[in-house]
Specification:
The chain is α+β, with helices and mostly antiparallel strands. About 60% of the residues lie in helices and about 10% in strands. Keywords: Guanine-nucleotide releasing factor.
């Protein structure tokens, strides 16, 4: 045996034994004695700290390990709740089953068991999963473990309550006694983290309630350590399979929100930390907590009910309760989307859920930035490079917003608004501006990209210039040189392939609620044909709804749901084109600019008055539908809901004028392009002047200009507009032919000369028809003018005749 003064190490069993003895002494000593000893040593904080650290170590060894084994077979774990204890102290603590009266208790229950052996076996094997000889011994050892764990927990709570009472002033002075407060809080969180019986948890929650009410200043000011850990632990217990535990955890979470609201006139800190905690739980990063979608949803419903009750009993609930409900719904959507994403095999659906989860973290910038970057990676993997780039733009906008709020500097972009020229959607990231006072103290922007590294190339130039960072300027300009070279190469090749857009409308109750009667614009890869997207959607939703339950509709006519089979789901797919009005086109001169920041789309539906889709040209009407999306394309996702629509109906004459104007516009756009696409130009010319198709323009001209001119002034004006449109069309064809002639090689001369002959024939015939129409319009207008003059003259004569008797009477 070593002598007393010689240092030596204790074995694990010896340490455990000493900790059990320490806890037993603390549990059995009178409260007055313990308080007196603590007051006597209150100036010696090293002793106080050592006492609390011993308590934390003792709690650690008292973790309930589960059911005791019989030989090699493991029994099912008993219920965490172990009933009422008649032999208990004033705190409701069960009497120690290892104490001197344990023998009598066990003998009364099972006289056949050797109690002394059981106590010895329990004490000797606290460090491992004990094995028993019989099922009866296993049951009793399991109960010993549960009671021992609860005894240690309640002893620790008794000590913590003494500290909160006798050391309240010291704990409130966080700057002077931070370690004391940390240790007290650590004991509470240690107890919450370990497996506990329901009885023990009841007492832990009661003590924690006192802590929250007494020390709200510690939770809601300064570091976020306390609030973050508390929210995490409470949400873990909101996931408990025991309804009573869940309800108490939700009640404490709601109390924390109330205290935060009273302290800060808002509960932004708890809102952020709760969102972060839920993210960790549902993402699976918390290995000790297996998230249950059903249990957490139940807890969120309880939270909403608490908010509703508060709204009824206090006027403060008018502002507070709606915010709690909003947070609960946001957490619910995050939970639902995260759970669905784990279950969903469809990659497109997973991208959608990534987007919704990122949207749910708008008020948690760290998490939003992480999910935006994750979404960018997923989009790039799917070769959706535009969407991946826009994820990066949103991330840069979020970083810029943070840098501007922290410390505006010369040369730095003015928040996310600086990126609006790239994407008007980036203004979404301005949500960070609503919480400037929390940015630094909350630690909600701790991601390493919340720095200059998170900005985009062109925005780094003025920043590097202001810092005289010439190395950085060299690197940025080198990268920008490569980018602009790629742009030049794309322009040299001619036509660029952008996205193809389709309207997709879901009809039928068999679809999920968010899709039923929903109308969306889908962005598909360039050159995607209508049958391709229809096949993909049909296959996807047939997998979900079953064979024969999905019917595709591939036309643009209005669908009447009342005439459809309610047991089936219908998907209507229609090709749509981006729409720009004349004013907007002036500010979008290039093809690229006309394919970004798209929010309006249009599609046409031909119809006739007799119900048929197509008819004679002078009987052909057109229904033009304009659709507006909730955001602009390209965006973070590949589809956007339609939020507004309007319909215009074109008469046959208006339809004809629009058709000619569209042909003219296409030719002019090709001619005015910086790098004309000769192949596209020739296709457009062939469609305009070739003998096989020029019956189209000629047919329109003959239908509306040959024959008597209308007497209606409005129709005459529209005919005049159509006539002017034809002359612009001929001029555009002539310009296109000149460009084609100067650009083609010798082997295409014969092809060009054939198109030139066709155009000359078309121009001769059209000019003759248009000149005759001009004379006819002049005659019709002359006749109308003569009739108007005649009517006016008759009117004046009538007035004079009617006024003569009055003049005579006056005389």
């Amino acid at each position: 045996m070593p002598w007393v003064g010689e240092p030596f190490e204790l074995k694990d069993d010896e340490v455990r034994g000493l900790l059990v003895i320490f806890t037993h002494l603390v549990a059995r000593v009178e409260d007055s004695v313990l308080r007196a000893w603590l007051r006597e040593n209150q100036s010696d904080f090293d002793t106080i700290f050592a006492f609390l650290k011993m308590l934390i170590a003792a709690i650690t060894i008292a973790t309930y390990p589960g059911a005791v084994k019989v030989g090699a077979s493991k029994l099912a774990p008993p219920s965490p709740a172990f009933g009422n204890h008649s032999d208990s102290d004033s705190l409701g603590r069960p009497a120690s089953v290892i104490s001197r009266d344990g023998r009598d208790v066990l003998h009364r229950e099972t006289p056949s068991v050797d109690v002394y052996r059981m106590n010895a076996l329990f004490v000797q094997n606290q460090h491992k999963h004990t094995e028993a000889n019989t099922h009866e011994e296993a049951r009793l050892l399991t109960k010993l473990w549960r009671n021992f764990s609860t005894e240690m927990t309640l002893t620790a709570l008794q000590v913590i309550e003494i500290f909160m009472s006798d050391f309240e002033e010291e704990m409130q002075e966080l700057e002077c006694h931070a370690e004391l407060t940390d240790l007290v809080f650590e004991v509470l969180m240690k107890l919450l983290r370990q497996p506990q019986s329901e009885l023990a948890l009841n007492h832990i929650f009661q003590t924690l309630q006192v802590f929250i009410c007494k020390f709200s200043g510690l939770l809601f000011s300064g570091s976020t350590q306390f609030a973050a850990t508390l929210c995490e632990m409470l949400l873990r217990h909101c996931n408990s399979p025991i309804s009573g535990v869940r309800e108490q955890a939700v009640a404490l979470l709601f109390l924390t929100m109330c205290e935060n609201d009273a302290f800060d006139r808002g509960f932004q800190r708890i809102k952020v930390q709760t969102t972060i905690a839920l993210s960790e739980i549902v993402s699976g990063s918390d290995a000790d907590c297996d998230a249950s979608d059903e249990l957490l949803r139940s807890s969120l419903a309880t939270l909403i009910s608490f908010a509703n009750q508060r709204e009824l009993v206090t006027s403060r609930g008018e502002d507070f309760s709606p915010k709690v409900r909003s947070l609960a719904m946001n957490l619910y959507h995050i939970l639902r989307n995260s759970y669905t994403m784990r279950m969903l095999a469809d990659s497109d659906g997973q991208l959608e859920l990534h987007y919704f989860i990122a949207q749910g973290y708008k008020h948690s910038p760290d998490l939003r930035l992480t999910w935006l970057l994750t979404l960018a990676e997923r989009q790039a993997e799917k070769k959706n490079y535009s969407e991946a780039a826009h994820c990066a733009v949103h991330a840069a906008g979020l970083v810029s917003e943070y840098l501007m709020l922290i410390e505006p500097k010369p040369g730095y972009p003015a928040g996310c608004a600086a990126f609006e020229k790239i994407s008007t959607n980036v203004i979404e990231e301005s949500a960070l501006a609503a919480q400037p006072e929390r940015i630094q103290e909350e630690g909600i922007c701790s991601h390493h990209l919340f720095s200059d590294d998170g900005l985009m190339l062109s925005f780094l130039i003025p920043m590097y210039q202001s810092h005289r960072n010439f190395k950085g300027l060299h690197e940025v300009h080198s990268m920008l040189t490569n980018v602009y070279q790629s742009v030049l190469q794309a322009q040299t090749k001619g036509h660029r392939y952008f996205g193809t857009y389709y309207r997709v409308k879901f009809i039928g109750a068999v679809f999920p609620e968010e899709l039923s009667r929903g109308e969306f614009i889908y962005k598909e890869p360039s050159l995607t044909k209508l049958p391709e997207i229809c096949s993909r959607l049909e296959q996807l939703y047939t997998t979900e709804l079953g064979p024969g339950n999905v019917i595709m509709i591939q036309d643009s006519r209005e669908v009447e749901p009342a005439k459809l089979d309610p047991r089936k789901g219908y998907i209507q797919v229609t090709y749509v084109s981006p729409y720009h009005d004349e004013h907007e086109l002036k500010h979008r001169p290039t093809e690229f600019e006309r394919n970004i920041n798209l929010q309006w789309f249009v599609f046409d539906t031909p119809f006739t008055k007799d119900g048929k889709a197509h008819g004679a040209i002078d009987k052909q009407y057109l229904r033009r539908t304009f659709l507006k999306t909730s955001a602009t394309f390209p965006y973070l996702r590949m589809r956007l809901p339609v939020v507004q629509s309007r319909v215009e109906e074109l008469t046959p004459l208006q339809f004809a004028a629009d058709s000619i104007a569209q042909k003219t516009h296409d030719l002019q756009s090709s001619c005015n392009a910086e790098t004309p696409n000769l192949t596209l130009l020739q296709l457009q010319l062939q469609g305009a002047v070739s003998a096989a198709v020029n019956e189209g323009p000629l047919h329109i001209a003959k239908a509306f200009f040959e024959g008597p001119m209308p007497e209606d002034y409005t129709e005459q004006t529209q005919l005049k507009k159509l006539r002017q449109g034809f002359f612009k069309f001929l001029k555009a064809c002539d310009q296109a032919l000149e460009l084609n002639e100067s650009s083609i090689s010798d082997d295409q001369r014969a092809y060009h000369e054939n198109m030139q002959r066709n155009f000359d024939t078309l121009r001769t015939e059209l000019t003759d028809i248009l000149n005759k129409a001009s004379k006819g319009l002049q005659r019709a207008r002359s006749q109308q003018s003569s009739m108007r003059r005649s009517n006016v003259s008759s009117l004046h004569s009538g007035i004079e005749l009617a006024g003569a008797p009055h003049a005579t009477t006056d005389v």
